[in-house]
Amino acid sequence: MAIKSISGDKDIYIVDTTLRDGEQTAGVVFANEEKIIIADMLSELGVDQLEVGIPTMGGDEKNAIKEIVKRNNYKKSIMAWNRAVIKDIEESIDCGVDAVAISVSVSDIHIKHKLKTSRAWVLENMIKSVEFAKQNGLYVSVNGEDASRADKEFLVEFINEAKKAGADRFRYCDTVGIMEPFRLRKDIEEIYKKTNFNIEMHTHNDFGMATANAIAGVLGGASHVGVTINGLGERAGNAALEEVIMALMYVYDYKGDINTKMFREVSEYVSQASGRVLPIWKAIVGENMFAHESGIHADGAIKNPKNYEAFDPDVVGLQRQIVIGKHSGKAGIINKFKEYNIDLSDEEAQGVLEMVRASCVRLKRTLFDKELVKLYKEYLLKTKNK
């Protein structure tokens, strides 16, 4: 189900490619069982289309794709990735997918130095591949690899030829992540105006702007967004599913039947399966998203969480934490000890706070609950012996 715009603009469809581009992260391999579990999770979460792998690889890859298609209880669109090669598409058909991505380079850099061919060759092979896929009843996304470095006039010609051949959408790939959101929005507006065709954003994070660029593309007229869980992907990764969806819903007021409460669970599972640690500072799903230590912030969050939280932690499957450390204040100490059924006076809280700060500097970290209780007992003993 698409994410819907309240303002009446076009709906946005979420295309997850964790199982294809995400697995192309250097050193990452998902076991077939893990791929199936991730596909089930993504389907339950509510994405519109899953890009699940590359059938022409054969072997375990095809077996996993076939099993995902077979288990597709949520009736989501299942897409496979292909080169602009008929044999690749035949392998996808054999897997039973309902959609294919047909990828071919469109920048002169790639055409000259990677493909070592011509623009005419690119157009010819793209058209043949699209026509073959459509003859076999498939939904077709034509991927313009390195679109962000392509000549704009050729890119428009490429898209219009794909449209004539029967393609359903164009995937704009910022393959090396060189775009910035202000220029990208203008480019997508121009391309959409000249082609009037469905555009999917596929952005990479080489300069840390993948999510911003994905959103910019939507603002420019794109109707689909390609994402991965935790931003997995080649080199610096892709736009993160959890970031894009929450930005659309909470910053741009889109509404969608997305089970955001699953975000933390799914992110943790993909982190474990990929062998890539989920940073505690990760946007949306990191443990520190709702952890408050600074005295001013903790006091504000205790009085009203909205003071320092853009949304409730339960929305993404997390919990609020008041962390006791070097930067804590009296309000945080008093509130924390209430969890132990201990009501501290202002004087006691100040005394314990001084001990807490000294301990944190010595240990170079925040304190555990048992350490706090121990400090409190030491404080009582010290004041008693005065």
UniProtKB/TrEMBL annotation:
Keywords: Transferase. It comes from the Bacteria. NCBIfam families: nifV_homocitr. The keyword Protein biosynthesis does not apply. GO terms for molecular function: acyltransferase activity, acyl groups converted into alkyl on transfer. This is Homocitrate synthase. Residues 12-264 form the Pyruvate carboxyltransferase domain. GO terms for biological process: carboxylic acid metabolic process.
